[in-house]
Fold this sequence. Notes:
Blueprint: E1 4-7, E2 10-13, H1 24-27, E3 43-48, E4 58-63, H2 74-86, E5 87-91, H3 98-109, H4 122-128, E6 136-142, E7 148-156, E8 160-168, H5 170-173, H6 177-188, E9 198-203, H7 212-220, E10 223-233, H8 237-244, H9 256-274
Parallel strand pairs: 2-3, 8-9
Antiparallel strand pairs: 1-2, 3-10, 4-9, 4-10, 5-6, 6-7, 7-8
Helix pairs in contact: 2-6
Amino acid sequence: MMKWKYYNYAMIPATEPHEDVDLEPIMNGMIWKSREGRGIPLLARWTSDFDCGYETQWWYVIKDTSFDISKLKAKRRYEINKGKKKFDVRRIKAADYADELLDVQIAAFSGWPEKYRPTVDAEKFKAGLASWDEKVVYGGFDKDIGILVAYACLTEYEHHIEFTVLRADPHAEKFGINAAMVAAIVEDYNDRLSKDFYICDGARSIRHETSFQDYLEKYFEFRKAYCRLNIRYRFPVGVAVSMLYPIRNWINKDKKLGSLVYSLLQMEEIRRDIS
Length: 275
């Protein structure tokens, strides 16, 4: 079975970040014949030299040490405790909160920039919750009114657990819901951290303008695990990338297509820089 999966127009490894990647499907071309019902992959992207020990332009954001809030600066302790005081965070079964999860999804996306704001298909979203039975799902509830205002869906592997998605009502973010959510997750896994296990928020974000990974580093002592970015393009995508690369800084990033193309060329720049 090919250990690759489709994600955002790309094929990426379905293995843990620290594991060696099976490149045979790229070598024999089988990677381009993959179909998961969601689209045609334009490229294959993988990393190597995970946590190499020196700075590169590509990384994963991980936490592999136990969390001790007492070691943080007073302001950061205050922000985390403020969220924990306001919100109750606990593991939930997604199917039991389908309507509430949908409401959070819609509210969260309303605050995204229009150029990459998704449209929420209510029926498709609820149908997809069935697959969450295999995930670890947390719900964040406002203690005053008992309403779900945030959720986190994570995928657990043998040696790490990875944030698949974290969504919150923008109104609740002002009161520290993200701090409460992350604190609950980190504390639940505290005993396993540093024992050949880590929490991962994924690789460097290119397309979406977010400061969440910086937030994790600042407030919860996550760190960058630097690595090497590798890309192989589907024909004729590689030809187009070569032609557009010299004019990458002239591309209009404010439109959805322009944002996608610019993100692709940014990754190409990083790949070339690391090579």
